[in-house]
Design a protein that fits this description.
Elements (H helix, E strand, L loop, with lengths): L5 E4 L8 E6 L5 E4 L13 H4 L15 E4 L2 E4 L2 H19 L4 E5 L5 H15 L4 E3 L6 H11 L17 E5 L3 H4 L4 H9 L3 E5 L12 E3 L6 H14 L5 H7 E2 L1 H9 L3 H8 L3 H12 L5 E4 L1 H4 L4 H14 L9 E4 L18 E2 L3 E2 L3 H11 L13 H6 L7 E5 L3 H4 L3 H9 L3 E6 L11 E4 L8 E4 L4 E5 L12 H13 L12 H12 L11 H6 L3 E2 L44 E2 L18 E6 L15 H6 L5 E3 L1 H7 L6 E5 L4 E8 L7 E5 L13 E4 L6 E2 L3 E7 L3
Parallel strand pairs: 6-7, 6-16, 8-9, 8-12, 9-10, 11-22, 12-13, 16-17, 17-18, 23-27, 24-26
Antiparallel strand pairs: 1-2, 2-3, 4-5, 4-18, 14-15, 19-20, 20-21, 23-30, 25-26, 25-30, 28-29
Helix pairs in contact: 2-18, 3-18, 3-19, 4-13, 7-9, 7-10, 7-11, 7-13, 14-19
Bound molecules: ligand MGD (2 copies), iron/sulfur cluster and molybdenum atom.
The site of one ligand MGD has 35 residues, from helix 16, strand 17 and strand 23.
Organism: Streptomyces lanatus
InterPro entries: Asp_de-COase-like_dom_sf (IPR009010), MoPterin_dinucl-bd_dom (IPR006657), Mopterin_OxRdtase (IPR006656), Mopterin_OxRdtase_4Fe-4S_dom (IPR006963), Prok_molybdopt-oxidoreductase (IPR050123)
Pfam family, one: Molybdop_Fe4S4
Length: 713
């Protein structure tokens, strides 16, 4: 098919930029512009532009590997699949089904995530499945559920941003983490709107802001309460809206009133005049939005923190109205869809709850199993990883690299090494795959079809543009083959089709009637439209399953248009009212003291993605971001006697990491920052604190206490 062009989407972040692929003579593809897709209108960041580099045989896995005499050696697919089935079956026989763990990823397509959740519960019969999305936006998801009765990252399309009056961006560095999205914020400013950025660092994003507040890491909850206090004190509450559309205001109000501005200044380090200015910018225009990302969410109080920001929106009448609202910027390619269809410990497809008897009955019927055979909720991601080698003896890992990305990573690495059996499906030999007993090489984005759901709740079709190299199979094929081997006489593989559209058809039925209803979405529609926003029930809106409408004679079935904007009439709570969260400030799980006097926060740089497993294999990206660093203020550097580029040791109660100093006045003098993309000596997660949020079970990646030491060259 020379010169043919395949429209598809980037393999990396939650923006899911549209791109066109053109196949090359050598079997590869090049990325070309796709201006018709409204989210990025052709623009791509360097990661998306260079994504084809990871398709090359020099950097990717090309054969299954099995451990033999301590090293990983090439093996046939039959041998590798048999070994995995044996490993999991032995664990199940010797220790019971819950000794088999499954760990997934928010980068997996909806079809893979759905199948993985089903595989765990139906084939392995284990409750022990969770995924890396728990490390990502779970606190915002929990807060959104509590407040609105539904969790969808953004309740409106990005194209609404330029037409609102003010956006408060809390702990998002989207100029580096979603560069093409910056356009919407520039247009906002061109239209006379304002941007407030809240980040302990003066990031590329903060440089664009009309107002930048730089709080101490881990204090966003107090900051939001302080702003709400001022909203009340200055008479800016939208009383009519609060009375009509919300519940719980009195308690939330009382909690905010205990956080007077000078007290909040003391906790956060943000001067009172800046608090007042933020309130003015947010309240004066007719419309305004608050968007959060990992800064306020990756805290051991992330759920309460996001709840406090939602309170601010509710008190000022800025949720469930056009051009106003609260949203969370999800992170991974399928960060949204990956959290809806059952790879989460407590969840069934369609964002149903595993402990809800009606949900169990519905999904069990779609799966053709007895509802009582479905296990209950399991452990959250960190707790699951922490149980490896003790309660959990074998692990199947698909789409994550926890040796680099999990908190307290040296401990988690030890836990992984203590497993009886580890199987990893990946496209490259990640640091975690290096520890496996069996590694399976799987197909990548450009080589397979599937759907993802971007940060707006827009379901998209990724299309296969080229054939995978010989010897590579898809994650769906892997699950099919393992189901065949582990199911014995039961013929379980029939429930694990290898064709993505077939899986999607089942997902439609399983999600029908659930909160994240995909039943009205088809591959045909996705191919014709620029995505469809969920919820999108079938025309009839029944829970019967969309497949049944086929062959319905002349009956005309109207298509549901999808739901770009949520909550305009009512919230998804039983009484239709949004709930205030009665939250109060509390400190980070680990505050600085004499021994560990500095705060460490962590995050990202534009040219590397996550654990770096993929992007560290791309020359152009490595040239731009070759390795880890410690960002610190000149005052801190002087005290340490460190010059630009000198190695600095960062020591926490978990361990010690060493990386070159990067000195800048753009960070608070009491805080250091490290990106987490690298393994080895400069691994940021050697230091991080796995203190968990009590509701979301999110670890505190964004704040822990450290001390700095000069390193003799
Ligand atoms: N280049 C690149 N892009 C990515 C990714 C990547 O790895 N690389 N990953 C994708 C994924 S999965 C995600 S989740 C998103 C994440 O996207 P972002 O949330 O934008 O990324 P982070 O860098 O983790 O954190 C954002 C900012 O939070 C600030 N911060 C740190 N501590 C605090 C705090 O206590 N309060 C506040 N308010 N801010 C704080 C940091 O200084 C940082 O600038 O990016 C996606 N896009
Ligand atoms: N200190 C610190 N740590 C953090 C964060 C932070 O801000 N600070 N952020 C956290 C966040 S938000 C996230 S999302 C996590 C992410 O961290 P990880 O979960 O480690 O994410 P990735 O590095 O994207 O790992 C994905 C792995 O799956 C592989 N892969 C990609 N596509 C597929 C596929 O289709 N199938 C299969 N089988 N494999 C595939 C990739 O090659 C890679 O090895 O890190 C968390 N860790
Ligand atoms: S912004 Fe995200 S989706 Fe867009 S090209 Fe970059 S990594 Fe890909
Ligand atoms: Mo993430």
């Amino acid at each position: 098919m020379p010169n043919s062009v395949t429209p598809t989407h980037c393999p990396y972040c939650a923006l899911q930029c549209g791109m066109n692929l053109t196949p090359q003579r050598d079997g590869g593809v090049t990325v070309v512009e796709r201006p018709d897709f409204p989210v990025n209108r052709g623009a791509l960041c360097g990661k998306g532009r260079t994504a084809p580099a990871v398709l090359a045989s020099g950097v990717r896995l090309t054969s299954p590997l099995v451990r033999s005499g301590g090293t990983l050696v090439p093996a046939t697919w039959e041998e590798a699949l048999d070994r995995i089935a044996e490993g999991l079956a032995r664990t199940r026989t010797e220790h019971g089904p819950d000794a088999c763990g499954v760990f997934g990823g928010g980068g997996l397509t909806n079809e893979k995530a759905y199948s993985l959740g089903k595989f765990a519960r139906v084939v392995l019969g284990t409750s022990q499945i969770d995924y890396n999305g728990r490390f990502c936006m779970s606190s915002a998801a929990a807060a959104g559920m509590k407040a609105f009765g539904l969790d969808r990252g953004l309740p409106f399309p990005l194209e609404d941003i330029p037409r609102t009056g003010c956006v408060i961006l809390v702990g998002s560095n989207l100029a580096e983490t979603m560069p093409p999205s910056l356009r919407f914020f520039n247009e906002l400013k061109e239209n006379g709107g304002t941007l407030v950025v809240i980040d302990p660092r003066r990031t590329k994003t903060a440089e664009q802001a009309d107002l930048h507040l730089a709080p101490r890491p881990g204090t966003d909850l107090a900051l939001a309460l302080g702003l709400l206090h001022l909203v009340v004190a200055e008479g800016r509450v939208d009383e009519e809206y609060v009375a009509e559309r919300t519940a719980g205001w009195e308690d939330a109000r009382a909690a905010a009133m205990a956080h007077w501005p000078e007290y909040v200044e003391r906790i956060t380090g943000v001067p009172v005049p800046q608090l007042r200015e933020a309130v003015r910018l947010f309240c004066e225009p007719e419309h305004a939005m608050v968007l959060t990302a990992r800064g306020p969410e990756q805290q051991s109080k992330g759920t309460d923190t996001v709840g406090a920001w939602i309170n601010l929106c509710l008190a000022t009448g800025r949720a469930g109205r056009p051009l106003s609202g609260y949203g969370c910027l999800t992170g991974q390619g399928n960060g949204q869809g990956g959290r809806e269809h059952g790879q989460k410990a407590d969840q069934l497809p369609g964002y149903r709850k595993l402990d809800d008897p009606a949900a169990r009955r519905h999904v069990a019927e779609v799966w053709g199993v007895d509802p009582d055979s479905l296990p209950g909720p399991g452990r959250s991601a960190y707790e699951l990883l922490d149980a490896l080698g003790t309660d959990i003896k074998s692990l199947l890992l698909m789409g994550s690299n926890p040796v680099v990305s999990a908190p307290r990573a040296a401990h988690i690495e030890e836990r992984i090494k203590s497993l009886d059996f580890l199987a990893v499906c990946d496209v490259v030999l990640s640091e975690t795959a290096e520890l496996a007993d069996v590694v399976l090489p799987v197909t990548q984005w450009a080589e397979e079809t599937g759907t993802t759901t971007n940060l707006e709740g827009r379901v998209l079709l990724r299309r296969r543009a080229i054939s995978p190299p010989e010897g590579i199979r898809s994650d769906l094929e892997v699950m099919h083959e393992l189901a065949a081997r582990l199911g014995g006489e039961r013929g379980l593989e029939k429930g694990f089709p290898t064709d993505a559209e077939e899986v999607f058809e089942e997902l439609r039925r399983a999600s029908a009637g659930g909160p994240a209803d995909y039943s009205g979405i088809t591959y045909r529609r996705l191919a014709e439209e620029n995505g469809v926003f969920w919820p999108c029930p079938t025309g009839a809106g029944t829970t019967e399953g969309a497949g049944n409408t086929q062959g319905a004679g002349n009956t005309e079935v109207t298509e549901h248009p999808g739901t770009p904007r949520l909550f305009l009439d009512r919230f998804a709570t039983p009484d239709g009212r949004a709930r205030f969260a009665p939250v109060t400030h509390r400190p980070a799980a680990e505050e600085p003291d004499d021994e560990y006097p500095v705060l460490l926060t962590t995050g990202r740089v534009v040219a590397q993605y996550q654990s770096g497993a993929q992007t560290r294999r791309v020359d152009e990206l490595n040239a731009a971001a070759p390795g880890p660093f410690v960002e610190l203020h000149p005052r801190l550097a002087a005290r340490l006697g460190a010059a630009e580029g000198d190695p600095v040791a960062v020591v926490s109660r978990r361990g010690r990491a060493v990386a070159p100093a990067r000195i800048t006045t753009g960070i608070r003098p009491d805080t250091v920052f490290m990106p987490f993309h690298w393994p080895g000596e400069g691994r940021a997660n050697t230091l991080t604190n796995p203190a968990l949020d009590p509701t979301s079970r999110m670890p505190e990646f964004k704040a822990c206490a450290v001390r700095l030491e000069a390193v003799k060259a």
